[in-house]
Amino acid sequence: MKQHRYRITVEYIADPDGHPQQREPLVFEAGSHDEILGIVELARKSRLMDEQTMAPFVVGQKLFGEVVMENRGNPLFADFWPHFLEFMKKFKGLVKK
């Protein structure tokens, strides 16, 4: 399947007490059948969540969803797959309104 390709970077900025942290960032590439940045913008316009919450939610959900979809036959995801599809339909319906 053709996919959009993304480079994901996670930087550890501070611990729970606010102390700055210096660690190498986690950097990896991932694919998605969707254009994630466009979905983030569309979702922000829906105002389902505040701006600070929407981007991590959408990015996390799209990355997780791609793994689940590509591995839906894996016993780890088999029972979860129908519920995930139901959730995605609901989310897409709310965002498009």
Just name the CATH architecture: Roll
Note the main sheet: 2 strands, antiparallel
Structural class: alpha+beta
Count every helix, treating DSSP H or I runs of 4 or more residues as helices.
4
Average pLDDT reading: 91
Keywords for this entry:
97 residues; alpha+beta; two-stranded antiparallel sheet; 4 helices; 14% strand
Structure description:
There is one protein chain. The chain is α+β, with helices and mostly antiparallel strands and 97 residues long. It has one domain: Ubiquitin-like (UB roll). It contains four helices and two strands. It has helices at residues 36-46, 51-70, 75-78, 81-96, and strands spanning 4-10, 26-32. It has a two-stranded antiparallel ribbon. The mean pLDDT is 91.
Draw up the topology in text.
Elements: E1 4-10, E2 26-32, H1 36-46, H2 51-70, H3 75-78, H4 81-96
Antiparallel strand pairs: 1-2
Helix pairs in contact: 1-2
Report a brief summary of the structure:
Helices cover 53% and strands 14% of the residues. With 97 residues, it is α+β, with helices and mostly antiparallel strands. Strands 1-2 form a two-stranded antiparallel sheet.
